Amino acid sequence: MKTPLLVFNDNGIYCKVANVYLDPWKPVDFAIISHGHADHSRYGHKKYITHHTNVPIIKHRLGDIQVSGVNYNESFVINNVKFSLHPAGHIIGSSQIRVEYRGEVWVFSGDYKLEDDGVSVPFEPVKCHAFITECTFGLPAFRWTRQAEVFSDINSWWATNRDAKQTSILFGYSLGKAQRLLKHLDTDIGKIYTHGAIENMTEVIRPMIDFPETTRITRETTKKELLGNIVLAPPSAHGSAWIRKMVPYVTASASGWMAFRGARRRRAVDRGFVMSDHCDWQELLKAVEATGAEKVICTHGYTDIFSKYLRTLGLDARTENTQFEGELNESDTKLEKEVEV
Fold first, then answer.
1. Alpha-carbon dihedral angle through residues 27, 33, 37, 38, given to the nearest 10 degrees
2. For residues 228 and 165, is the Cβ–Cβ distance under 8 A?
3. What pLDDT does residue 2 have?
4. DSSP for 294-338?
């Protein structure tokens, strides 16, 4: 029986021919990294390769590591296996990883979305024989509203709170979601203040993206300064002593999970905006179809449901367990606790 080009083992997704791992979750000698979120780029590997815009991000998160960057569509060969990175549209610097050996092509999607968010390079489908796809929101119930409409709602919410002389606090992950929100907030309404973790990450990315001006919240920041303005904060800040100093305030969360009835109540926020950096059901199906792959491996999320549906379409679809957690683990809580708030 022919050994698959990519296999799943205790360390991660492994290409035996090249002796290379893709987004490994345990320390290995050589890792190709799809993007900067904590569940995909972990500390302890001897050598890293990633997209060049992701290099400063993972160095900021992981410290002094041996990492080299490549461009999209730039091929590099390891032990006769050809690799290349292609836009995933998930967050800035996010990539799909293409692996080719003796005419066989596999693509590991990492995390991805199809809608152009104005920050990351938009997703580009890559033809392959086998496609490894995430399924974070792999249920038919998930269907995203277009980004322009969501941001119109967010800015209207902010303006209403400003008129009521309240501070607007909007929660989003410090890497990816926060910068997407920042890019599309209407600064005619007021000023944008940031939690230290978001400001630190945005400073890393700002040389690559044109963002509106932000003001870091410090111990010297007063309630009066914040009134009528908006604060971008990571989810871990909710309920903390840091946020209690901002009364009177109104809270909101921007997440795909806000599509679930009761999610806003469970997260104890006043408003929920349905916005994800992952595909909805229809986008997942569209992406799989665009690859032309006959074999599909479904990872993290609603894998059983999504793979079962793909099999009804005639595809060879199965599931694999990973330590990737999709939108459940992008907050990098350790980093957020380390910054001065």
1. 0
2. yes
3. 77
4. SEEEEEEESHHHHHHHHHHTT-EEEE---S--GGGS-S-HHHHHH
DSSP 139: S
What pLDDT does 328 receive?
Answer: 57
pLDDT tens sequence across 12-24: 999 999 999 999 9
d(Cα 283, Cα 253) in Å, to the nearest integer?
Answer: 22
Name the residue with tokens 């569209």. Answer: 286
- CA end-to-end distance (rounded Å), the chain: 56
CB 139 within 8 A of CB 302: yes
In terms of residues, how long is the chain? Answer: 341
**Residue range 7-141+277-327 in CATH 3.90.1150.10:** no
| Biggest alpha carbon–alpha carbon distance for the chain | 69
HSE-up of residue 257 (Cα within 13 Å, Cβ side):
18
**pLDDT tens per residue across span 195-224:** 999 999 999 999 999 999 999 999 999 999
Second-level CATH architecture of 147-273: 3-Layer(aba) Sandwich (3.40)
Phi–psi pair at 86, nearest 5 degrees:
-140, 145
Average pLDDT, consecutive stretches of 10 residues, N- to C-terminus, the chain (341 residues)? 90 98 98 97 98 98 97 98 98 98 98 98 98 97 97 98 98 97 98 98 97 97 96 93 91 92 73 97 98 97 97 98 72 37 30
pTM confidence score? 0.94
> Which residues make Cβ contacts (< 8 Å) with residue 321, sequence separation at least 6?
8, 299
User: Using CA atoms, how far apart are residues 29 and 64, in angstroms rounded to an integer?
Assistant: 16
**Phi, psi angle pair for 107, to nearest 5°:** -130, 125
Q: Across the chain, how many H-helices and E-strands are there?
A: 10, 19
Domain boundaries along the sequence of the chain:
7-141+277-327, 147-273
Among 255, 250, 261, 273, CA closest to 150? 273
Residue the block writes with tokens 């050996």: 101
